[in-house]
Amino acid sequence: MDLKLVSEDSEVLREVADYWDWETDGDPSELVKAMSKLMVLHGGIGLAAPQCGISKRIFVMGNPEHLVACINPEMISGTERIREQEGCLSFPDLWMYVERYQDISVEYYNVAGEKVQQDYTGLMSRVFQHENDHLNAICFDDRVGKLTLERAKEKRKKLRAKRGV
Ligand SMILES: [Zn+2]
């Protein structure tokens, strides 16, 4: 399976993704493998299926030594909101401060279809929330104010001009 990233104006990024059904959708292993490969190739630490044009509730996160696949994930609870800088593989060169929970409790299914309960803090908590948003048709540009977005796009323009892109 060969996957590609969709562009930032792609409609699939603004669609609520469907639940993965092991009975009708089959084994998600190949998809997860292909997504992990694509994420690592682009130097990301999280990638959701809609970012590859697949409107399913699956994302991968972590690094090549420790990759986690979260299928049909749910946020159970979150505490303490903090702002940190974020990027997104769907929006190359765009960096913005986004407010998220510091600590979260979540549930998801692994590739084998087993339910997993997990607490995340710090960076992995942030990645989980960012990727989970993708499954709900929310991109990080929806999480910031208009002015912040405009400034970030302005910065990107300058960065790209400097680079000659
Ligand atoms: Zn993203």
Descriptive notes:
There is one protein chain. By secondary structure, the protein is α+β, with helices and mostly antiparallel strands. 30% of the residues lie in helices and 31% in strands. The protein has four helices and five strands. A five-stranded antiparallel sheet has the order 1-2-3-4-5, sandwiched between helices. β2 (58-63) and β3 (66-86) form a beta hairpin. The chain is globular. The model has no long low-confidence stretch (mean pLDDT 97). Bound molecules: zinc ion. Residues 88-90, 130, 134 line the site of zinc ion.
List keywords for this structure.
alpha+beta, 5-stranded antiparallel β-sheet, 30% helix, 31% strand, binds zinc ion
Layout of secondary structure:
Layout lengths: L21 H4 L3 H13 L4 E3 L9 E6 L2 E21 L9 E14 L5 E7 H14 L10 H18 L2
The structure holds zinc ion.
Zinc ion binds next to α3.
Short description:
The protein has 165 residues and is an alpha+beta fold. It has helices at 22-25, 29-41, 122-135, 146-163; strands spanning 46-48, 58-63, 66-86, 96-109, 115-121. Strand 4 and strand 5 form a beta hairpin.
